[in-house]
Design a protein that fits this description.
disordered N terminus, four-stranded parallel beta sheet, Rossmann fold, six-stranded parallel beta sheet, alpha/beta, 3 domains, Serine Threonine Protein Phosphatase 5, Tetratricopeptide repeat
Length: 450
C-alpha cells in the first residue's frame, strides 16, 4: 500500500533575477540548469563549478551547487557552498529589501536542511529561524522549522509551524464552506480531508472520536476506495466519501493532519490505539487462509517509489532480510510477505533460498491487509502505511528506519514513538545505507522472543 509522505521542503532554488555579469557566466548557468533538469547531476556539478570559477560572486550558482552536493550526499561540501552563497548575498545587497530578504531566507532554509543531515540540530534550528525572521510569509521555512521541532517532540510550538505545509503542498482547493479554526462544534457538521499518504489518514483518524466528544453532529471523511472498508470500523465517522464529486456542504472542513494542532496535542496526550479494527466479514474470510504456525511474522521491505525519501527508507531488495531465515522452521517462525506493489515479486524470485508465504497479490484493500495483519504475532516493516496500520490495530510492529530523512513522527532517537507506543518498536540505522546491521539486530531480538 502507499506510504506516508511528510517530507521537508528541501533544496529551494533561488528566484534571483540578477543577470550574470558576462555572457560566459550565463552560458555556464544555462548548461548547469539544463543538466540539472535532465537529471545529469555530474554534468550539472561540473557546469556550476565552471560558472563559479568564472564568477565566484554568483549567489544562484553557489546555492544550486550546494543543493546538488547535498543531493549527492556530499553534505560538508554543501554546507560550505551555502555559506559562500550567503556571504555573496550579503555583500551584493547589504541593505535589506524584500527581494534580498527572500533570497537570504531561501539560503538559510537550505543551509538548515544540510545541517539537519549532518545531525547539527541546534544550528539547523537557528538557520530555519533566521529564514522565518527574514521572510515570515515564505511557507517552506516555516514548514521545515515545524518538522524539526516535531521530530524532537516539541509539539507545543511545532504544530503551529507545521501548518505552513498547506501553502507548500496546496493539496486542497477552495471549498464553499469555511475551514474549522477551533469554533464550537456542538450540533455542527464537519468534513475531514485526507492529506499526503495513506499512513497520514491511518495515523490521524484517531481524532474522529475526539471530534464527536466535542459535539459534532455529523462527521464525514473523504478517503480513498482502498481505505474505506477498514475506516468503516471507526464508528465516530458518520459518512465515508470516496468520490470527490459527491462532496456536499458542511458547516466546516479541516485536514486530518491539522487536527493535532487544533487539539493542542502533546506527546503525553495522544489518543492511544487501538482505534481501528478488522471488519468482521474480512476476518472470517482470511482466518483460515494461512497454514498453521507457532509464530507468524509479516514482512514489508519497500514503500512506493514516488516517496521523496524512498531511496533511503526502502530496502534495496528482499534478499537483505536473509539473516531472518535461520529462524524459519527450526524456531517455529512462519514469514508472510505483506508487500504490495513495489518489490512484490522479489520474494517469489528468492523462494528457494528464503522461505516466505507471498500474500501481497491477494490483498485487495486495507481491510484485507488488516485481516492478515491481525493474524500476525509481529510485523517487520520499513516506514510505510503498513506500520501505521499495525499501530492503529495495536499489533506489535518493528519498524526499520534509515539514517537520513526519518519522518518526524518517529522522532530523532529512541525505540518508541508516542503515536503507537508501546506496541511499535523502532530499529534505526546507525550508518547511512547499513541495513544489514538493522536486520541482524531484528534477527537477534526475534531469537530472544522465541
Amino acid at each position: 500500500m502507499d506510504p506516508t509522505s511528510s517530507m521537508s521542503a528541501s533544496g529551494s532554488s533561488l528566484m534571483a533575477k540578477v543577470a550574470p555579469q558576462a555572457p560566459e557566466a550565463g552560458r555556464w548557468l544555462d548548461a548547469a540548469l539544463a543538466a540539472q533538469e535532465a537529471g545529469r547531476l555530474t554534468e550539472a556539478l561540473a557546469a556550476y563549478e565552471q560558472l563559479l570559477t568564472f564568477a565566484p560572486e554568483h549567489v544562484l550558482g553557489w546555492n544550486n551547487l550546494a543543493n546538488l552536493l547535498r543531493q549527492s550526499g556530499r553534505c560538508l561540501e554543501a554546507e560550505t557552498a551555502y555559506r559562500r552563497a550567503l556571504e555573496w548575498a550579503l555583500a551584493r545587497a547589504p541593505v535589506l529589501t524584500p527581494e534580498s530578504a527572500l533570497e537570504r531566507a531561501q539560503i538559510y532554509a537550505n543551509w538548515g536542511g544540510v545541517l539537519e543531515d549532518l545531525g547539527r540540530l541546534a544550528e539547523a534550528e537557528a538557520a530555519y529561524r533566521h529564514a522565518v525572521a527574514l521572510a515570515p510569509e515564505w511557507a517552506p521555512a516555516q514548514f521545515n522549522l515545524g518538522l524539526l521541532l516535531l521530530s524532537q517532540g516539541r509539539y507545543a510550538e511545532g504544530w503551529h509551524h507545521y501548518e505552513a505545509r498547506k501553502a507548500v503542498f496546496a493539496e486542497h482547493g477552495t471549498l464553499p464552506f469555511p475551514e474549522w479554526q477551533g469554533e464550537c462544534l456542538q450540533g455542527r457538521s464537519l468534513l475531514l480531508l485526507p492529506e499526503q499518504g495513506y499512513g497520514d489518514t491511518l495515523q490521524f483518524v484517531r481524532y474522529a472520536r475526539l471530534l464527536k466528544e466535542r459535539g459534532v453532529a455529523h462527521l464525514s471523511l473523504l478517503c480513498a476506495d482502498a481505505l474505506a472498508p477498514l475506516l468503516q470500523t471507526q464508528t465516530a465517522i458518520d459518512h465515508l466519501i470516496t468520490r470527490p464529486e459527491t462532496l456536499y456542504a458542511h458547516d466546516f472542513w479541516i485536514s486530518l493532519a491539522s487536527l493535532p494542532y487544533r487539539f493542542g496535542t502533546l506527546p503525553d496526550t495522544i489518543a492511544a490505539p487501538p482505534y481501528l479494527k478488522v471488519p468482521a466479514e474480512r476476518e472470517a474470510l482470511w482466518r483460515d487462509c494461512l497454514p498453521p504456525a507457532a509464530w507468524r511474522v509479516g514482512l514489508a521491505w519497500k514503500g512506493s517509489a514516488w516517496h521523496e525519501n524512498d531511496a533511503h527508507r526502502s530496502l534495496p531488495h528482499f534478499s537483505v532480510l536473509q539473516p531472518l531465515w535461520s529462524l524459519a522452521g527450526v524456531q517455529g517462525v512462519q514469514f508472510v510477505s505483506l508487500q504490495k506493489g513495489e518489490g512484490e515479486g522479489e520474494s517469489e524470485a528468492c523462494a528457494a533460498q528464503q522461505p516466505v508465504i507471498a500474500a501481497g497479490a491477494a490483498l485487495r484493500d486495507f481491510a484485507d491487509t488488516a485481516a492478515l495483519v491481525a493474524q500476525m504475532d509481529l510485523i517487520v516493516s520499513v516506514d510505510t502505511a503498513l506500520a501505521h496500520l499495525a499501530g492503529a490495530l495495536n499489533v506489535p510492529c518493528w519498524v526499520m528506519l534509515p539514517r537520513h530523512g526519518v519522518d518526524w513522527r518517529w522522532l530523532r532517537h529512541g525505540e518508541h514513538t508516542p503515536w503507537y507506543s508501546p506496541s511499535l518498536r523502532l530499529f534505526r540505522q546507525q550508518e547511512a545505507g547499513d541495513w544489514r546491521t538493522v536486520v541482524d539486530d531484528i534477527a537477534l531480538q526475534l531469537r530472544r522472543l522465541r
